[in-house]
Amino acid sequence: MLPEPIFLLPVRRVFASLTLVLGIAVFPAHAQDRVVLQLKHTHQFQFAGYYAAVEKGYYRDAGLDVQIVEGTDAEAPLREVLSGRAQYGTGSSSLLLARLSGKPVVVLGVIFQHSPYALASRQQGETPDPRRLAGKRVMLGPLSAPLNHADELSAYLKREGVPMEGLQRVEHSYDPSDLINGRVEAMSIHTTNETDYFDRAGFPYDIHSPRAAGVDFYGDNLFTSEQELNANPERVRAFRAASLRGWQYAMSHQEEIAGLILAKYSRRHDRQHLLYEARQMVPLVQPVLVEIGYMNPERWQHIADVYTDLGLLPKGVTFNGFLYNAEPGANLAWLYRIGGGAALLLLLGAAIHFALLARERRRSADAIRAGEERFRIMFEASPIGIALIDGVTGAFSDVNPRYREIAGRSEDAFASHSWLDFVYPEDVAGWTLQMGRLAAGDVQEFRTTLRLVRSDGTTVWVEASVVPLQAGPHLKLCMIEDVTDQKKTEALIWQQANFDQLTQLPNRRMFLDRLQHDVVKSRRDGTRIAILFIDLDHFKEVNDTLGHHQGDVLLVEAARRIAGCVRQSDTVARLGGDEFTVILTELQLTDRADAIAQDIIDSLLAPFELGQEQAFISASIGITLYPDDAASVGDLLKHADQAMYAAKGAGRNRFSYFTPALQVAALNRMRLTNDLRSALKGDQLRLYFQPIVHLSTGRIRKAEALLRWQHPQRGMVSPLEFIPLAESSGLIVDIGQWVFNESIRWVQRWRRDVHPEFQVSLNQSPVEFQREGGSYDVWLSALRQAGVPGQAIVVEITEGLLLDASTMVTDKLLQLRDGGIQVALDDFGTGYSSLSYLNKFDIDYLKIDRSFVRNLAPDSSDLALSEAIIVMAHKLGLHVIAEGVETAQQRDLLAAAGCDYGQGYLFDKPLPAGEFDALLRSHAAMLAAQ
After folding, report:
1. Strands 571-576 and 845-848, sheet pairing
2. Run of H or E residues at 67
3. Degrees (nearest 5) of the Cα angle 566, 572, 575?
4. How many angstroms separate the CA atoms of 771 and 494, rounded?
5. pTM exceeds cut of 0.85
6. Is the pLDDT of residue 8 over 60?
7. Predicted confidence (pLDDT) per residue in 138-195, tens digit
8. H or E stretch including 382?
9. Among the listed residues 521, 415, 435, 532, the one whose alpha carbon sits nearest the alpha carbon of residue 478
10. In 10 A of CB 689, how many CB atoms?
11. Are 111 and 262 within 8 A, CB to CB?
12. How many Cα atoms within 13 Å fall on the side-chain side of residue 903?
């Protein structure tokens, strides 16, 4: 049941609106009476009127010194007022239960004409349905409190066919995150409060309002005790008048009062939230249409009937004395005594009577005019847009300035157009449906969000609330707020959550959502889907050499090229880094996904113009098909990833289809990686050494440490198989440390027993060398503790590391040099060879790759290249080691070319540490015998 609009209220209510302002002067309280107002919650805009009454001096002018106290729980106001520790309090409609249970409370005025209490749940479907909450975990209020807003919601749920015993009630935490995170399926809220936090979190929610089932309670009520009323009637009247005046000011000056709350009461909520709360309170308080403080006895009877239906009150109860009478009727008994006592004075009495009536009519007319003027002033100055419209024709009866401002239309435009003329075409159907439900009585009111078209062609998002009025059968009150900025913010949040900020392609979240949708559609239509995983080859080199900014430019251009190779109905997404995915939908049996994959590869081969530089990359693409390869999204993604790595392993710049063999290989890699985790603890790793021979003397003065894995079931596992797994899993760091510790132990022994300058070379993985935060402090400390100089160790790295332009590589090479550890450049001549690298970095040895040594012969090009490398290295002060020496001819040619050292099967294969130790000792003995 809606309260009557002020322009339709009886004369006595309009008269009351005047005395509301004048009451403080007419009924002054004692000078500076100190009283306490007990709130039911912590400070927020819900109690704005009381703060305004303090700040603007309304209480002071009434002779009152008011202390406003925060509430610790919902029962605090009733408890404090009845105990006398507070004289006034704020409470819900459950005050009626308290009164009828014998507690002497008196309601002074209603602040919220409609209760803000509602149930919130995660959004499910287009229409909120409270029946979905049956059997679910729900927070309805303190489980121990006998009187709280659970009564109002209980009545609503009962009418909707969801009894309280059908819910799993949970103690209320008043924390919106409990609903957002799924701790409960529903919770009671204030529509003025928690919904703001849901919106900020992007949480989709349904609101279940008791008003939808005809349960229309009052919200906050100002109350006192009979003791206070009987003892201090003038103070009660003055306090009520000042409080309601404060509420009138607060609802008309929302920005000012929000600042006041932040400055003097609480910073628990930010300004944005306080203003949100203020806007949400307008349709609940209805300050323009209803005099603040107005109470309708019939509404209280409606509330009592609801409690009766819940079994909390007997039928036919009365609540005399519960509602405060702000304007007691005048006592005219003296007129009747005069009329009955003296017939002679009958004519005089009649004259007086009619004079009084005439004066009352004049006063009533003045009050009506004042009330209408007050309504018009508040109507014109309202911070929200308000219009009266015909629910059938859509014609406007009255429109306030704020409404015209939001809609972007002149006053003449409203006179010649209907509501639907301003609604965005796509929103007309939804608006018409809601108005039809309102006209049919299916809903008592509704709120919706839609767009209006302004006269300049731009659109504005508005949140519209529509309620019927009693002044006409089709008259509707429509209130709108401009929520365009909020919609833009929501759109930005959605964009950021679903699209890659650099390339503007769908991100991983959007990609997974679309893939799931496409799988469902493909299953229904009987079509196929292809998923392409694309990884850009050599992108890291571009980032390292040209910088991340140019790398971003390349990624944007790569995204454009990939999107240009597919249909508009297909999806191109960026998962992160240099990884892209493509969903090819609605493929028929004759369609070829590999043709599109090849187009993408070809398009990416063209040079990328990056400022003054050019960059060249390629792509490795894995392809998997639905439903051929898998039935679930997770398996499809896994298979596409495996196929992409197969393409990389096959040489890059190509595509590869998923095959069951890839799955088997992936499973083997996973199992082998798991086994590798226990290899260190299980003492399964072995260190082998291969001799490095000084070619001119034939002496063994160096050795290369080589790692082997003795698997308990598989036997000896090749380093080519397990080293990549160690790198990808991060185990390479611990394994590298183990190799270093073992090498120190052996080189310490050989420098003591074989030769004081013996060296051991260690291969270091690029992953190990480039790890963030890594340093050689641990190595250098271990060398010092063992009494072994840094010169005993040579670290072998690949040429690819020297491409990294970062200072990290330089710093680590300098740290090795400062510690005396020497550096060898492995596989020289097969990678990104550059003389500038040799000149820039501190390198001690070059190792000629076995591919040059394999075909050495007199007058061969390989010999010429080897000679050139040796001469160049010696000119730069570097020593040269030739790998893969297997024949005496190769040894002799290298020695003749001036090569310093040789390594290969001609001298010996890699040997276990114990056997290599025996070899060194026998070799030393043989040399001593000579």
Report:
1. unpaired
2. strand 64-69
3. 150
4. 35
5. no
6. no
7. 998 777 655 455 778 888 888 888 888 888 888 888 889 999 988 999 999 998 999 8
8. none
9. 435
10. 27
11. no
12. 23
